[in-house]
Design goal:
- By secondary structure, the protein is an alpha/beta fold.
- The chain folds into three domains: 233 residues, Ribonuclease Z/Hydroxyacylglutathione hydrolase-like (Metallo-beta-lactamase, Chain A), CATH 3.60.15.10; 108 residues, 3-Layer(aba) Sandwich (Oxidized Rhodanese, domain 1), CATH 3.40.250; 106 residues, Oxidized Rhodanese, domain 1.
- Helix content is 30%, strand content 21%.
- The protein is built from 16 helices and 24 strands.
- The strands form five sheets. It has a six-stranded mixed β-sheet, with helices on one face. A six-stranded mixed β-sheet has the order 7-8-9-10-11-12. Strands 13-17-16-14-15 form a five-stranded parallel β-sheet.
- It is globular.
- The termini are far apart.
Amino acid sequence: MKVDQIYTGCLAQGAYYIESNGEVAIIDPLREVAPYVSRAEKEGAKIKYIFETHFHADFVSGHVTLSELTGAPIIYGPTANPSFDAIIAEDEQEFKLGNVVIKVLHTPGHTMESTTFLLKDETGKDYAIFSGDTLFLGDVGRPDLAQKGEITQDDLAGYLYDSLRTKIMPLANDVIVYPGHGAGSACGKNMMKETVDTLGNQKKMNYALREDMTKPEFVKEVTDGLTPPPQYFPLNVKMNKEGYDNIDTVIEKGTKALSPDEFETVANTIEALVLDVRHQDEFIKGHIPRSIFIGLQGGFAPWVGALIKDVKQPILLVTDPGMEKETVIRLSRVGFDNTLGYLKGGFEAWKSVGKEYDTISSITAETFKTRLEAEKLNVFDVRKDSEYASEHIDNAKNASLEFINEHLSEFPNDTPFYVHCAGGYRSVIATSILKSRGYHNLIDVAGGMKAIKEAGIPLTDFVCPSILKK
């Protein structure tokens, strides 16, 4: 028996490859499925099953394409209602895979169809659970994404409490926990950085598995402090339930090379969004006017999903040479399939033909400190509310990047203002959005809070999160 976790950092997502005696099961595959097929072929094995723990909201799964390529059935737990052919398993139904067995444990709460898959080894012993978004390491899945009709988030949290205590906590302490996500995912609040653990350790470490916790206490703790989910979540659920274009079709369309003139014509004719995915330092030095920066080297896919409202939005890419296909794939993981092409030769090609370009004014933390000491400045901190609450520059205003469009009226039009984040990535995203909306009187603080601390700029240690402006 082989069990491999295939972890994708930019999505904080775990897919799983299970093999026994020449038969393979894939759990929660990514959109690009070629690696799973290649792996099975290399091992001389056949993909027999594709298991989905639930209808994912934060990424588009590869289940439909993988099933088309391999003929393997897609398996969901009870109450799932996809638009395509799938096996809707019964609770406790078992599927034989080579010499091992995968058992269905219906665990509603994150969503009503949420299911945990229990792997039994060759001896029949419980070996591991693939818990999807039911149980994370240090946390559980948020219960506010599948509210329908009269079902509230409190109802879902109650179902989750029961699922954990009747289906998961009775399992042996040495059972391995393979979660659907790790730290950084928006599907939970406070996940551990580790991606694999034992159930016994989780019973000690995870607040949601306390034996003495009552259901009302659980509901309160699980729902407390939930921020609004990213707006692309429902769109990804829809794609996962109804199907989507083959990834090869999306890549072919998105990797069309466009000359600077062709690129400009397409951008202006159909109002395509120009997305620049280079490093923030390069974007600062020069970029196409009104383009938006979201760099591949940061939390790319989640930020695309959070900040671009419509997955059908036409997109044109500015990338480093050779990164075009990678960018299209990573966009497709969160459902953004309408990429129309990329700037051939990159930004240097744009400059070389004399086309207009823009820059961002950026200063070091040391220069920023000097200016702070000389006069009162307009400072905007675009980190999360919780980061701002823990420490921030005195008199700085919090304008969290996730909700920057709600803060537009707070930015001055006629006087300079300064923008910073934690390390310099999010502040450049923010400044690109602001410049695209006509704010050109802004200055980025390079290096963010890390550099600000190193420069010795005084900070306010704490402010109660409840008084932060929402």
